[in-house]
Design a protein that fits this description.
With 243 residues, this protein is of the alpha+beta class. It has one domain: outer membrane lipoprotein receptor (LolB), chain A (Clam). The protein is 16% helix and 35% strand. It is built from 5 helices and 11 strands; from the N terminus they run H-H-H-E-E-E-E-E-E-H-H-E-E-E-E-E. The chain has helices spanning 2-12, 19-22, 64-79, 148-151, 158-161; strands at 82-90, 96-104, 108-113, 119-124, 127-132, 137-142, 163-169, 173-182, 186-195, 201-207, 213-222. An 11-stranded antiparallel β-sheet has the order 6-5-4-3-2-1-11-10-9-8-7. It is globular. The two termini are 14 Å apart.
Length: 243
């Protein structure tokens, strides 16, 4: 079970199978409970088919144009200090789940899945946990052992700080593929897609060490609001031993 939860951590952002999360998720996405909430910018969210392996290349073979693209993506990620938005996730089994996420740099993120799923994923700056509110249980790994440390750092240079293995662009997206090897979960691959014109984060796909893909599309993004600091607090009474 621990390995499954760690894999779930890998899958949700950059870090993987989400089967541990999907077993608590509905087969069809529920409607958001707040009727006054703003309508999605482009409902329903379209998941762009991806193939992380197709965009891969040998590290160090990138031309100046590709390096410039990666630099622009790095600049966007570095300039975003807070981010609130909605997400749609497609798991390896095709199951679709939705929710809301909150980011506060450095090192803090929270993913809340819509009911009836009781799952939350929280990073408090030091640790990352998958929490089941119904069972009051959590599985924890140090933030330093997950690729989350890259996206949640104050400043990021993808070409320097990560293992970039692919860069491509078209009229709609700029795509960067990163490969990450971790002792606990093996080697996973992240395909990150940003808008070709605004370089705003749109979607990512994670391929886990077993070759299963999990795709997350984000929308209704807001970089002006500051999340409530309490969102990133891991309840002390539930905090598990990470060993």
């Amino acid at each position: 079970m621990r390995n499954a939860r760690v894999a779930a951590l890998v899958a949700i952002l950059t870090v993987g199978s989400t089967m541990a999360l999907a077993q608590n998720a509905p087969a069809t996405p529920p409607k958001r409970p707040n009727a006054q909430a703003p309508a999605p910018t482009r409902p329903p969210v379209a998941i762009v088919p991806t193939n992380p392996s197709a965009a891969a290349a040998q590290p160090g073979t990138f031309d100046d144009k590709q390096r410039a693209l990666v630099a622009k993506v790095s600049n966007y990620l570095s300039n975003v200090q807070t981010l609130i938005g909605d997400f749609v996730q497609i798991g390896p089994d095709g199951r679709r789940t939705e929710g809301q996420f909150f980011i506060q740099k450095p090192g803090k993120v929270r993913f809340e899945y819509n009911p009836p799923s009781p799952v939350e994923i929280i990073a408090d700056g030091k640790s990352v946990v998958v929490r089941d509110r119904n069972l009051a249980t959590m599985q924890l790994v140090p933030l330093s052992q997950t690729p989350l440390r890259f996206l949640l750092s104050d400043k990021i240079d993808l070409m320097r700080d990560t293992n970039v293995v692919g860069v491509s662009a078209d009229d709609t997206f700029v795509t960067v593929v990163i490969e990450e090897s971790q002792t606990l979960v093996g080697t996973s691959r992240l395909m990150m897609m940003v808008g070709a014109k605004d370089y705003q984060l749109r979607q990512w796909t994670v391929t886990d060490p077993q070759g299963f893909d999990t795709t997350v599309a984000v929308y209704n993004l807001d970089t002006t609001k500051k999340p409530d600091p309490d969102l990133f607090t891991i309840p002390i009474q539930e905090r598990p031993d990470p060993r």
